[in-house]
Structures are given as structure tokens and as C-alpha cells.
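Re: duplicated header lines in exported C-alpha cells

Our pipeline writes sequence and C-alpha cells for each protein into one text file. With two proteins the header for the second block appears twice in some exports. Here is an export where it did not happen, for reference. First protein block:
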Amino acid sequence: MPVPDPWEERLARTRAEARRFYAFLGDWVGAGEAHGEATGGTLSGVALLDGSIVEVTERTGDHDDKSFYRFDPDLGGYQVLHMMAGAHLREYPVEFTESGLVWVTPPGEPSVEWSFTPGELCCEVVWPGDLRPEVRVRWRRSR
């Protein structure tokens, strides 16, 4: 009887768990509002390495973001590594909701929530104490 390989089991689990982020995969075109002004842009999602990391690149107006989503088998949870201009680099836990996912941000930072429907993504960024999103963009597949 073959002995299970712990490394292969880890790889299989991280790939399987990363599939929860595959809603981002592909090329998207977005339109919405950011900081009180109309905005639009592009979003691209790709699976990296063995498919266990999903890279999401957003370009809206003059603003670029890059996020890397993964399942951390050591912590037993989902994470996002978020980067943007100004050497901003933060890592947040991610929780899944009925309609998508939310970044678990510390007090004083905005909440980031994604909802997924067939052929559409929606991102809302809400600062603590605000009732309306500071950013709300709907993304539709470009191809």
C-alpha cells in the first residue's frame, strides 16, 4: 500500500481551495463610480504557478491595483496580498459570503467586498462610518 506524500496532498489541497477565486479569471471591462466621479477600466485575472494563486490586475482611471489570492494551508484560511501605488502592500484574510467574498480589514481601513454573478463581478469599497461605497465598479467579461 503506497504511503501518502504530504507535499502532494498540500499541493492538491491548495489548488482545490484556490478554485474558489477562479471567478476572477479572464478579461473584464468595468464601469462605475470612484470618489464621486465616473470611472471605468479593465480587470484581468490569471491563475499562476500550479493554479494555486490567482492574480488580479485592476486598472481604473489613473489607478492600478494588483491582488494575489490564495489558500494558506498552514493557517487553514484564505488570503489576499494587495498592492497599489505608493508602495502600498497589505495582506488580509478573506472570507466567502453567499454572493462572493470580503476582505477582513482592520478597524479604520475600508471594507472591500466582491460579489460574483454569471458574467459579472462587482467591487464595493466602503470606509468605516460611511453609508455609501466610496468605490463601486461592475465588471463584465470583455470576451
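Second protein block, exported in the same file:
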Amino acid sequence: MTIVAKLDFIQLNNALKLVFCRNVSSKLANVAIFPTIDIPIATINALIDEFETAILNAKDGGHIAALLLQDKEKQLDDMFHLLVNYVNKVAKGDETIIAQSGFNASKVPTPHQKAELAVKSGASSGIVIVDIKAVKGAVAYNIIFKKESDEKYSEPVTSTYAQHEFTGLTPATYYYFCFNTVSKEGVSDYSDPVIKLVE
């Protein structure tokens, strides 16, 4: 098993995500083991401030403000995805170093067991097929999904097969899909999200 910083913050609601991101930024700025961050701290903090402003502006329910909030959240998620990669590069599997970054640590399968997820279009509009590369020892898979604009993921859809078809999705809309595995050892962490434009 390999220890890595994980992307679970993507599933947080806006208020919790704001607190999480500020904590990570503060730790990266003040822990000596992270001397050459790929993204300047000032740039990180500026985007976090913009995200907070967008949250406040969206409280009045305005459509434009809500779209701006979605845009800022995506920018923040993308930036922190890069920071996760940076932390994993520095930590090299050291859970203590990952903890000092503010990110949560996760045990993932070794490379030859790495679980993979692919999402492809189905036979007609609004249908996608989720293909999971079968994981040795898995007895079931939990799949969650959400529209790009949604804050929270769906309740898990459990399948004993490594392929599952979703119907009734909104065409011309981006969806995020993640999954975890169920085995005799327990339930794994969710995978990194895969983004699919539903046709």
C-alpha cells in the first residue's frame, strides 16, 4: 500500500472547503519541509479570498453570482489538485509529511493493483456507462456522481459488477464520477473524480 494526500476536499460544501483551503495554505506557508511550492502562497490566498467573496455574493440567490461561485470553486479545486500532486511529490509516501500539509492521507493500492475508472457515452442521450478496472479481492463497487454545479455527491450506487449504466442524466452537462471498492478488508477511499460531458 502507498500513502498519498487525497482529494476528499472536493466533496466538501463551500463553507467547509473555505476553512480547509485556508488551513492548507497556512500550513504550506509555515512548514519548512515545503520550501518551493509550485504555486506562490500569495496566489493561493488570493484565489481563496475570491472564493470567499463569491460565496458571500451568491447568498442573495442571483444567477450570475451563483455562476461566478461555481467558476471560482472549480478554479480552487483545480489549484488544490495541483497542490496535492506537489505534496505527494515531496512526501514520497510519508504520512507525517502529508499531515503537516493539512491534506488528509489515504492508503491506495500499489501501482499494479491501481483501480481505474472510465466513463463513456451510452447508446442514447443522457446515458453513460461507468467502467471500473476490476480490483482483485473486491466484492462490490460503490459509485457516486454529481453534476459539476452540485455541491454534494449522490448516495452511493452499489454494484457487484465492474460496469454500470446510468440513465436519465442531463445532456450537455458535466458530471463527476467516483467509486470505491468493498472487500473483506473493508471499504476503500473514493477514487479521484472523473469528469464526463453527458451527450
